[in-house]
Design brief:
Chain lengths: 627, 333
C-alpha cells in the first residue's frame, strides 16, 4: 500500500508578478514502512514538494495542478487529496504533526530558543492527542529516552541552545514522531551534522522506522546517505523527475545521463591517483595562467618547510564571570599543543568535527587570534620570519603572503561593493601598482578563476554560489600569496559546483605553485585535494600522515571512527551504523588506553610510524599491536 | 541565579549615575556666569537697578564663592539624602516645585505608553501578517504621517479644531483651581478629562514608530525556521504566531523600555508648552534658560535615574523572557 502518491504535481511561484513553474508534473510514491529518497541539487524543487505535502508552501507559491493523495493506514479506505485541502484549514492541520511529521536541515533554528524542548514536544502531542499533562510527560520522557537522551527527565526542561547539534536533531525527531505519524518527511536531516553524528542520527531514524513502521520521505543531495538509507530513489532535476526506481536499479544501472553525471561529480575514496572529478556542467573554459616564477618548483623533502607550526596553544574562557572576579569559569583548550609543517607547493588537509579547533588554528596563522603559546615560522626560501613576533609595519608587509578562502560565499563578500572593488581592495590596501595596473590585474584574476571580465561591475548578489566562491578565490589570489588557507571552501556548495571549484583550486595550485592549508570536515573532499592530512580532535592533532597512508592504515581510533562513518554512494559498502561511539567519536573515554592520557604517566606524544605517519599516543605504546 | 544577576546590575548602576551626575554638573556650570549674574543682567536690561550687595550676599549664602568640586560634592550628598536643592527663581526647594508636576508628567507618560502599545501592537501584527496587502499599505501610510508630523504642530491643529468645533480650550492637564492642591477625586476627574488630548498627541509619533518596529521585527521572525516547525506540528496559525514569532519579537520591544521611560518624560516639552501642560518639560526649559542650576541639575539627574531604571527593568524583563540571556549570562569572550 502506498502511504503517499503524488501524481502530475505542478507547483508555481509568483515573484514580482511573474508566474513560474518550479515543479513540472512530478509523480512519485512512498510505500508504507519504506524509505524513499528524493535526490537533487539545490533549486531542483525537492524542498518545495515537501512543503506542498505539508501544506506549508510560502505565500508566493501555489499548487497549480495534480494531486497529493495521502492514504492513512488507520483509515485506508478514504484517501485524502492534500492538494485540494484549504491551506490552514482544520483537515490539513490535523494531518500535520499528527499523521505526517517533519524534520529539517538546521536543528538549531528549527527549535524555538525560548521554549524548553519538553514544552515544544508536549505542544505537538496535546494538540493531536488530548490527554492529561502527567500522562503526556510520561510519554514524552519515554520518547526522549528512545531517541537517545541519557536523562530524559532533565532533557525535558532543557533549551535547544544547551544541546549539541546531534542532540537537537534527536529532539526534533522526538517532536516529529511523538504522535506516531504514518509518514516522516526528513528534509536534509543530517547535512548540517558532522559525519560521525550523521551516522548516529541516520541509524536512529532506521531503528525508529523499524519500530514504528512509518514511511520516510528523505530529501537529500548526498548520494552516500541515499545508498545507505533508501529503498527507492527519485532523482529530480529542475522540477522534473529524471529517474526513479528501487535503489538497486538506480545505483547499479543508472540510465539517465544526469544521474550518471551526479555519481561522477562527487569525490570518493577510490579515486585513482590524478583522477579528476567530472563537473556536472563544465565551467567556462579558462586560459591556463602563466606559471609564475617560483624559487624552487620541485619540492624536495629536505628543503625547509614553508610554514612550520610548533606547540600552538589557545584557551578560551567561558561561563559567567561574576562581578567580583569569581564565578563558574571554565577554561576550554581550543588548541592544545598543535604542531605541523606545510611544505612548499603541498596541500595539507586539516580534518575534524566542528568545534575541534581547526578554524582557530587557521585564525592564529592569519594573526587574527593571538595564541597563548607556540611558534610559527614562515620560510619562503629567502628569509625566515617569526610570524607571531611580527608587529606594525612588518606584520602589514607579511599579510599578503598568507590569504584565506572562506566557507560562506554569501557573507564573505560585501554586498555593497562591485566585484571590481572587491578584487581591487587588497591591491589598494597594500598599494600595489597604479590605478590602471590594478585594473589590468583584476581582469587577469577574473580570467584565472574562469569568470567573464564583463561581470566586473556587478554586485555579488547577482552571482550563483559557485561563482561567488570563484570571486573569493580571485580575491585570495590578488596579492600573489605563498600560502592560502581554505576554510571549508566547498561545504556550502552543491555537488556539481563543488567539483568545479575543487578542480579550479587544483589547477591553480599546479600552475602557480601555491601551498594550501585545506580545512574541511568532509573526508572525501580532503582526500581529493590533500597530499598529507592532519586529523584534529579536541584541540589536538591525533594523527598526521600522507594521504594514502591515512586512508589505507589509519591508526588512531578517532581517525578510524571518522573513516567508518562516511557514507559511500555504493551499495556494496554500506555503513556499519553500530560502530559509532555513543558520545560521538571524539569522546576520548571510548578510545583504547594507549591513546588516552595516563593521569600519572607522561604526556602523550606523536609516535612515528614511518613514512611521515605520526599518531598521538602514550610514549612507548605499541600502537601496531593496538591495530 | 536571577537574583545575582539583578544585584550585579544594580551595582553597575552606581558608577553610571556618579559619572552622569558629574557630567550634568559640569555642563550646567560651563556657561559664563550663574543664576545671580543672569538675574542682575535681566534686571538691568529691564531698567531696574540691581542691588549688587544683595546679589553678592546671596552668592555667598548659596556657596557660589566655593570651588566647583566642593559645590558638586554638596549637591551629590544632598541628592543622596533626597534633598534636590533650592530653586533660586521660585525661592522654594526644588522638591516642592517639581513634586506635583512630576506626578502629572508620570500620569501622562504612563497613559501615553499604554496608548502606544494598545494601538501599535495590533496594527503592527496585522501589517506583518498581511505584508504588501492594501491594509498594510494603508496603515503604513497613516503611520508614516504620524511619524512625520511634528508633535507641536499636531497639538496646534488639535487646539484649533477644538476651539472651532467645540468652542472649548483644551490646554492644561488639570483645571487651574486644583493646581498644587492635594489629590482628591475631583482633581483626579479633572486630570482624566484633560488627559486624552496630550496622550494622543504625544503618543502619535511613538505609535507610528512602534508600528514600524513591530512589523519589521515580526516579519524577520516569520521567516524563521522554528515558525515553520510550529506550523508543521499542526498548530492553528493564530496560536503558532502568538507563541513563537510574536514572543521572539518582544525582545526588541522590551529592550526598548529603557529608552521609552525618559524620552516620554522629557521628550514632550514642546507639546507641553504649546498645550500649557503643567508637566515638568516647560519647567526644565525655563530653568536651563535662567541658569537656575539646582532645579535644572536635579531634574536632569532625575531623568538619568529614570533611564538607568528603565534599562534595569528591560534587562530584568529580558532575562525572564529569554532563557538564552538568563542561562548563558555574561557572553563568552
Amino acid at each position: 500500500m502506498d502511504i503517499l502518491r503524488i501524481s502530475d504535481l505542478h507547483l508555481g511561484f509568483t515573484i514580482h508578478g511573474l508566474a513560474r513553474d518550479v515543479v513540472k508534473g512530478v509523480s512519485l510514491r512512498v510505500p508504507a514502512g519504506k524509505t524513499v529518497a528524493l535526490v537533487g541539487e539545490s533549486g531542483s524543487g525537492k524542498s518545495v514538494i515537501s512543503q506542498a505535502i505539508m501544506g506549508l508552501l510560502p505565500r508566493a507559491g501555489a499548487i497549480t495542478g495534480g494531486e497529493i493523495l495521502f492514504r492513512d493506514p488507520l483509515a485506508p479506505e478514504n484517501p485524502i487529496d492534500i492538494a485540494s485541502l484549504p491551506a490552514e484549514g482544520k483537515e490539513i492541520r490535523s494531518l500535520r504533526g499528527g499523521r505526517i511529521g517533519m524534520i529539517f536541515q538546521e536543528p538549531m533554528s528549527s527549535l524555538s530558543p525560548v521554549h524548553t524542548i519538553g514544552n515544544q514536544i508536549e505542544e505537538a502531542l496535546l494538540l493531536h492527542r488530548p490527554m492529561s499533562k502527567p500522562e503526556a510527560r510520561g510519554l514524552i520522557e519515554a520518547m526522549l529516552g528512545r531517541v537517545g537522551f541519557k536523562d530524559p527527565a532533565r532533557a525535558f526542561g532543557l533549551y535547544s541552545f544547551e544541546l549539541s547539534g546531534g542532540l537537537r536533531q534527536r529532539a526534533m525527531l522526538a517532536m516529529a514522531l511523538i504522535c506516531q505519524p504514518a509518514l516522516l518527511i526528513a528534509d536534509e536531516p543530517t547535512t548540517a551534522l558532522d559525519v560521525t553524528i550523521q551516522a548516529q542520527v541516520l541509524d536512529l531514524m532506521r531503528d525508529l522506522q523499524a519500530e514504528m513502521g512509518m514511511a520516510i520521505l528523505l530529501i537529500t543531495h548526498d548520494l552516500g546517505v541515499v545508498a545507505n538509507m533508501a529503498d527507492e530513489v527519485v532523482v529530480i532535476y529542475h522540477g522534473e523527475i529524471m529517474e526513479s526506481g528501487p535503489v538497486e536499479d538506480i545505483f547499479r544501472r543508472p540510465r539517465h545521463p544526469y544521474l550518471k553525471a551526479l555519481l561522477k561529480a562527487s569525490p570518493h575514496f577510490d579515486m585513482a591517483e590524478g583522477e579528476r572529478l567530472v563537473a556536472l556542467r563544465e565551467a567556462r573554459p579558462r586560459p591556463a595562467a602563466v606559471p609564475r616564477p617560483v624559487p624552487s618548483p620541485g619540492t624536495s623533502a629536505e628543503a625547509a618547510p614553508l610554514l612550520s607550526v610548533r606547540g600552538l596553544r589557545k584557551a578560551y574562557t567561558t561561563g559567567s564571570r561574576s562581578f567580583f572576579g569569581k564565578g563558574t569559569q571554565q577554561t576550554v583548550l581550543a588548541v592544545d599543543d598543535v604542531g605541523f609543517d606545510i611544505r612548499r607547493g603541498e596541500c595539507l588537509g586539516l580534518v575534524g568535527e566542528s568545534g575541534c579547533g581547526k578554524t582557530t588554528v587557521s585564525k592564529i596563522i592569519m594573526r587574527a587570534v593571538t595564541p597563548d603559546a607556540g611558534t610559527i615560522r614562515f620560510d619562503d626560501g629567502r628569509a625566515k620570519i617569526d610570524v607571531l613576533g611580527l608587529d606594525g609595519e612588518e606584520l602589514r608587509a607579511f599579510r599578503p603572503r598568507v590569504q584565506m578562502i572562506f566557507q560562506d560565499p554569501v557573507s564573505s563578500l560585501s554586498p555593497r561593493m562591485t566585484v571590481m572593488n572587491i578584487l581591487r581592495e587588497p591591491l589598494v590596501v597594500h598599494g600595489k601598482g597604479s590605478g590602471s595596473e590594478q585594473t589590468a590585474r583584476v581582469k587577469a584574476l577574473m580570467e584565472d578563476v574562469g569568470l567573464d571580465v564583463r561581470f566586473l561591475n556587478r554586485y555579488p548578489h547577482s552571482f550563483s554560489g559557485g561563482q561567488r566562491q570563484r570571486i573569493g578565490i580571485a580575491r585570495a589570489l590578488a596579492l600573489d600569496p605563498d600560502l592560502i588557507i581554505c576554510d571549508e571552501p566547498v561545504s556550502a556548495l552543491d555537488v556539481s559546483v563543488q567539483a568545479q571549484i575543487l578542480n579550479l583550486l587544483k589547477d591553480l595550485q599546479a600552475e602557480r605553485g601555491l601551498t594550501f592549508l585545506f580545512i574541511s570536515h568532509n573526508l572525501a573532499v580532503v582526500n581529493y585535494m590533500a597530499d598529507r592530512i592532519a586529523v584534529m580532535a579536541n584541540g589536538k592533532i591525533v594523527e598526521i600522515a600522507p594521504r594514502h597512508a591515512l586512508f589505507s592504515k589509519p591508526m588512531h581510533p578517532y581517525t578510524r571512527a571518522l573513516l567508518k562513518s562516511v557514507p559511500f554512494a555504493d551499495l556494496d559498502r554500506k555503513l556499519d551504523f553500530k560502530l559509532a561511539a555513543p558520545g560521538g567519536a571524539s569522546d576520548a573515554t571510548h578510545w583504547a588506553p594507549a591513546f588516552r592520557r595516563d593521569p600519572e604517566g607522561e604526556a602523550l606524544t606523536h609516535l612515528p610510524l614511518g613514512d611521515g605517519h605520526f599518531v598521538l599516543a602514550r610514549p612507548g605504546a605499541d600502537v601496531r599491536e593496538m591495530a | 541565579m536571577l537574583l545575582k544577576y539583578i544585584l550585579k546590575r544594580i551595582l553597575v548602576m552606581i558608577p553610571t549615575l556618579l559619572i552622569t551626575s558629574a557630567l550634568i554638573f559640569t555642563v550646567i556650570n560651563l556657561p559664563e556666569g550663574d543664576y545671580f549674574e543672569t538675574l542682575a543682567a535681566e534686571m538691568q536690561a529691564q531698567g531696574e537697578k540691581a542691588d549688587m550687595s544683595r546679589i553678592e550676599f546671596l552668592k555667598k549664602e548659596y556657596g557660589f564663592d566655593k570651588p566647583v568640586h566642593e559645590r558638586y560634592f554638596w549637591w551629590v550628598t544632598g541628592l543622596l539624602q533626597g534633598d534636590m536643592g533650592y530653586s533660586f527663581e521660585y525661592q522654594r526647594p526644588v522638591r516642592e516645585i517639581v513634586g506635583d508636576r512630576l506626578m502629572l508628567t508620570m500620569i501622562v507618560s504612563f497613559f501615553t505608553i499604554i496608548f502606544t502599545w494598545i494601538v501599535a501592537f495590533p496594527i503592527g501584527i496585522y501589517s506583518a501578517t498581511h505584508q504588501y496587502s492594501w491594509g498594510d499599505y494603508g496603515l503604513t501610510f497613516v503611520g508614516l504621517i504620524g511619524l512625520a508630523v511634528p508633535h507641536f504642530l499636531l497639538a496646534l491643529v488639535f487646539m484649533y479644531m477644538a476651539n472651532v468645533w467645540f468652542g472649548t480650550s483644551i490646554g492644561g492637564l488639570v483645571d487651574p483651581q486644583y493646581l498644587n492642591q492635594p489629590m482628591s477625586w475631583a482633581k483626579a476627574a479633572s486630570v482624566l478629562e484633560h488627559l486624552w488630548i496630550p496622550v494622543i498627541i504625544i503618543g502619535a509619533g511613538g505609535t507610528a514608530g512602534m508600528i514600524r518596529s513591530v512589523r519589521a521585527n515580526l516579519l524577520d521572525e516569520l521567516q524563521k525556521q522554528y515558525y515553520v516547525t510550529a506550523r508543521a506540528k499542526g498548530l492553528p496559525p493564530g496560536k503558532a504566531l502568538r507563541k513563537y514569532p510574536l514572543r521572539m519579537s518582544l525582545n526588541f520591544f522590551v529592550s526598548d523600555i529603557g529608552d521609552i521611560l525618559p524620552s516620554i518624560v522629557s521628550g514632550a516639552e514642546i507639546v507641553a508648552i504649546v498645550l500649557s501642560l503643567q508637566t515638568t518639560g516647560p519647567l526644565l526649559i525655563r530653568a536651563l534658560q535662567s541658569q537656575d542650576m539646582y532645579l535644572a541639575g536635579s531634574f536632569l539627574m532625575f531623568l538619568s535615574f529614570l533611564t538607568v531604571i528603565g534599562v534595569l527593568i528591560s534587562d530584568i524583563a529580558l532575562a525572564i523572557l529569554d532563557p538564552r540571556i538568563r542561562l548563558q549570562g555574561a557572553a563568552t569572550k
